[in-house]
Specification:
heterodimer; A: alpha/beta; Rossmann fold; 6-stranded mixed beta sheet; about 35% helix; globular; B: alpha+beta; 2 domains; 6-stranded mixed barrel; two-stranded antiparallel sheet; 13 helices; 14 strands; elongated; binds adenosine-5'-diphosphate; binds magnesium ion
Amino acid sequence: MRGEVLIEVSDLRREYRVGEVTVPALQGVSLSIRQGEFVAVMGPSGSGKSTFMNLLGCLDRPDAGRYRLAGEDITRCDADRLAAVRNRSIGIVFQSFNLLPRATALENVELPLIYARVPAAERHRRARAQLARVGLATRERHLPRQLSGGQQQRVAIARALVNEPPLILADEPTGALDSRTSLELMALLQDLNASGITIVLVTHEHDIAAFARRVIHFRDGRIVEDRPVENPARAADLLAATPHPSPLSPPPQP
Amino acid sequence: MNLFDTTVSALRALRANKLRSALTTLGIIIGVAAVITMLAVGEGAKRTVQEQLKSLGSNHMIVFPGTVTASGVRLGTGTRNTLTEGDARAIAEEVPGVLAAAPGMRGTAQVVHGNLNWSTVVFGVTPEWLIAREWRIARGRALDDNDVRTGAKVALVGQTVADMLFGGTDPTGQVIRVKNVPFEIVGLLAAKGQSFSGTDQDDLILLPISTARSRVLGGGPGRSRTVGHISVKMADGVDMKEAEIKVRTLLRQRHRLQPDQDDDFNIRNLSEVVEAEQAASGTLSSLLAAVAGVSLLVGGIGIMNIMLVSVTERTREIGIRLAVGARGRDILGQFLTEAVILSLIGSVVGVALGLGSTLALTHFAGWEVVLQPHAVLLAVASASVVGIFFGWWPARKAARLSPIDALRYE
Ligand SMILES: Nc1ncnc2c1ncn2[C@@H]1O[C@H](COP(=O)(O)OP(=O)(O)O)[C@@H](O)[C@H]1O
Ligand SMILES: [Mg+2]
């Protein structure tokens, strides 16, 4: 239900050991996120944002602290249960897209469904629907290298959505994209958020964070600021105001 | 992930690296082909020995006359240094388990038909001799007791003699001359082929022993009952060693030999020769199988090597799969499937190659090779086992990666 607590972390800690040196990447993070929120995580490089996202995404385990997702104590789950959580409850979007290079767009989107043991016909249908949802219905058979960066990131989002998880995690999803493509992506994420999906997004750009409804600041592995955004910008409006740079359109008059 | 999806994705991964996959399977191909060929060669050797055993007659021994010596001194006239038809009858009647104890005489003679002639081995035999030596009749009839009693001038010819004198036409009813005596051919012996020592077993003619003795092979009327040898055939399951002892005891009694006297006969127990040959061919087969097994093992190590490289190279792919919900066992299954598919493809090609080389050995080298279905099955099964065994460790390594470590891998 919208408004209920989805993510609840308390005193989350994570250190990296590199040789003799111990890097305390997260030094006690507590926070809760409700269903339907759109949270931007900001902070300087090395402040622990990615470490935090990897823990939220069940890709990594904390050294200490508690993490509850939809009421389930994730810190006590075994590896197979974590895989199931990643598969069904969380869609993850990476800065570097992380698509399988030799699989088509459609096959990449189908991947989570394969591990969810969805029969082939149903898989195709659902993957197609998600590709259409992100505006790539005509690119089903393209390989990642035959797609632009923005299109690849859309495929990654379609893949994150295909199991209809309540939560999308995105670590600098616009980091590798130009500004217009970033806008398009943010419009898509805002759409998804409007449909009820909780979104947690890492960015170091204020322009991007401005589309969220809550901004959290990290520094040295701690949360130093957590504030709501009064009037989040609408990416779709900005997009409409920006003319489409097309080689076919006439050059601007001096 | 179900089996079909796993297989499809494994095939895709293997296709992405065609050359490497092909080189990997090469080890398995050679291993499987070697197993199949070696087993076929080994089996062929075994069959050859078995056939020779059959043609020799199993459970068979031959008693030859010997000279009599006592305390190292050869005794002179008056000692009995020959075997008789009576000895043969006594063996047949008194040694338990004897199927046939048949006297025979052996010599060589020129056999003439029309303007063709051929030098061959002539045996004077009784009907039992044919049983003891396991000769079958291809055409016409065998010798019978009546032929022996009346000293009939009839002959059985071996396939080689028939070929030489009659060039493939039916020899029965034809007349040949042996030492100027005309014999009517009443039967053609079924061919046996080569013996162990490589002699042609079909190069012979058989005459009734009485006729042979008086007309062809010599021996005066006074010694009319002596024979060249006695062929003894025992029933199946009889202990040949024991039978040999019984025959020896019986003959020593009949020949009135004192305990300090040596035997005046020799017993050649052919079963022993055959058993030794069989053991040798068995050893050969196992040796060949071992060599083939080693090549299969080397092929398996090749698979492991490639799988390890592949796991390292595809760490990021593994990370992506884990991130979208693959479990460790899904990753394990995926890499294991790739290993098994590699070895199955290797098996199929290896079977084809093995069949080819088996045919080539028969066709060009003239080796007797016998391909058994279970050899093919064994080769394919062991290739799969090798694939799973050597694919296991790299696959396990992949399955144990933590998602974030795999994703971060450069
Ligand atoms: N795998 C790792 N091994 C060692 N240190 C790491 C590793 N990942 C991150 N760190 C360190 O942890 C700290 C936080 O990193 P990270 O969470 O990636 O920060 P951010 O995403 O905010 O830039 C940094 O000091 C970084 O050097
Ligand atoms: Mg980061």
